[in-house]
Amino acid sequence: MRQFATVSVGNGPLVTLALHAGHDLRPEIAERTALSDVERLREEDPYTAEWAAFAPTRVVVHRSRFEVDCNRPRERAVYRVPSDAWDLPLWREPLPDALVKESLLGYDGFYREMRELLTGIVARHGAALVLDLHAYNHRRDGADAPPASQAENPDVNLGTGHLDRERWGGVAETFVTGLASAMPGVDVRENVKFRGGHFAHWCAQTFGNRVCVLAIEFKKTYIDEWSGELDSAACARIAGALEQLAPRLLDTFMDAV
């Protein structure tokens, strides 16, 4: 079993985070899950770790959100009943409190590491820029059903609900315009589907405007969310666009530091 997360520290204020990239489960959790690998993968964010790889400093969570979800408040981080997770039949039997407690140790460790990492970056550079990378489903009605409407499901949703726009609004605008330029024809909009999750909220509460978190959700057009089949070219296009955009984002970010 791999460690809970890998934190790779390099130079500069930029951090990429693949918070829902993980698929691993502890054996005692895996033996209780009622979900297949494909069912779990559908709600995870596969290949976001590959998108994060370009940054000198990056954090990849290897543990599945079905063990513990680091993008939810601690009291809701372990899914226990179907209503916690898209009404899915989660467990063959109720999770014992002891297993939940152990899962939350991973959650607590993740946030300790993030506090230490971001505190160091802020001390060295004055602020930190975090690209919080996710993917989201748009075919929830079934494999053969029409996808959800484009009007409410942009190709890329930028969540800035917890962002200090007075300081970092230019970074958000650079992301929207820059990604649209790097991926011509892609629909990039702000706060349509998501406004950012608990991690972005925690950063705002913990660091104020010293940490700029862009919560970025790519619609799962790069993968078949029902079968898990990857479109390698589409996935690589996303990775390349993020890497291409990073210098522009950093320039705008540093202007605001």
Description:
With 257 residues, the protein is α/β, with parallel strands linked by helices. The protein has a single domain, classed as Zn-dependent exopeptidases (Aminopeptidase). Helices cover 38% and strands 15% of the residues. It has a seven-stranded mixed β-sheet, with helices on both faces. Helix 5 links the parallel strand 5 and strand 6. Helix 5 packs antiparallel against helix 7. The protein is globular. It starts with a strand and ends with a helix.
Which properties best describe this structure?
7-stranded mixed β-sheet, 257 residues, globular, alpha/beta, single chain
Brief overview:
This protein is α/β, with parallel strands linked by helices and 257 residues long. The protein contains seven helices and seven strands. Helices cover 38% and strands 15% of the residues.
Tell me the name of the CATH class: Alpha Beta
User: Any idea what the CATH superfamily is called?
Assistant: Zn-dependent exopeptidases
Tally of individual helices: 7
Radius of gyration: 18 Å
Could you give the count of β-strands? 7
Mean pLDDT: 97
Task: Work out the strand percent.
Answer: 15-25%
The dominant shape is globular
List the helices and strands and how they pair.
Elements: E1 5-8, E2 14-18, H1 27-30, H2 37-43, H3 48-52, E3 57-61, H4 97-125, E4 128-136, E5 156-159, H5 165-182, E6 188-190, H6 198-207, E7 211-219, H7 232-256
Parallel strand pairs: 2-3, 2-4, 4-7, 5-6
Antiparallel strand pairs: 1-3, 5-7
Helix pairs in contact: 5-7
